[in-house]
Amino acid sequence: MEISTLAMYHCLAFAWYFFVAYSITHVKAEERPSEVFLYGGQWKYLTVLNLVLQAVFYGVSFLADALRLIKKLRCAKCVISSRDLLFSVLAFPVSTFVSISFWTLYTYNRELVYPKSLDGVIPLWLNHAM
């Protein structure tokens, strides 16, 4: 795949994850069930932390692609190695764990991970995007 195509993909993925993370952090406070967001708010949930992690990863990936396009090789090597480390140590394992555990528990017993009281607060598209 060409670097410019890859840069466009990483830019769009970064924009998507940033938008989803922004959307979840701006859920109206008066509509939130108090028992769900007690102690730590939404930042205690691994799904929200995973969204921020994915946004950071795709931001670093886009930066690496942009540096490769403008031929800043010394900076690009450092950013690329950071991107690879971030992907292999955090982004891939955390996102795999979050998606497998969430959807397994959701299938088994929905109330364990996503109570019905959240249906009116978090839209269906946002739940799926997380």
TrEMBL record:
Statement: the UniProt record of this protein carries the keyword Transmembrane: yes
Cellular localisation: Endomembrane system
GO CC annotations on file: endomembrane system; membrane
Transmembrane region(s): 7-25, 45-64, 85-106
Catalytic activity: 9-(9Z-octadecenoyloxy)-octadecanoate + H2O = 9-hydroxy-octadecanoate + (9Z)-octadecenoate + H(+); 12-(9Z-octadecenoyloxy)-octadecanoate + H2O = 12-hydroxyoctadecanoate + (9Z)-octadecenoate + H(+); 12-hexadecanoyloxy-octadecanoate + H2O = 12-hydroxyoctadecanoate + hexadecanoate + H(+); 13-octadecanoyloxy-octadecanoate + H2O = 13-hydroxy-octadecanoate + octadecanoate + H(+)
Main location: membrane
UniProt keyword NAD present: no
InterPro entries registered for this protein in UniProt: ADTRP_AIG1
Membrane topology type: Multi-pass membrane protein
Keywords tagged on the record: Membrane, Transmembrane, Transmembrane helix
Pfam families: Far-17a_AIG1 (PF04750)
PANTHER family: ANDROGEN-DEPENDENT TFPI-REGULATING PROTEIN, ANDROGEN-INDUCED PROTEIN 1-RELATED
Similarity comment: family membership: Belongs to the AIG1 family.
Protein's recorded name: ADTRP protein
Source species: Todus mexicanus
The organism's taxonomic lineage, starting at the top: Eukaryota, Metazoa, Chordata, Craniata, Vertebrata
Gene (UniProt): Adtrp
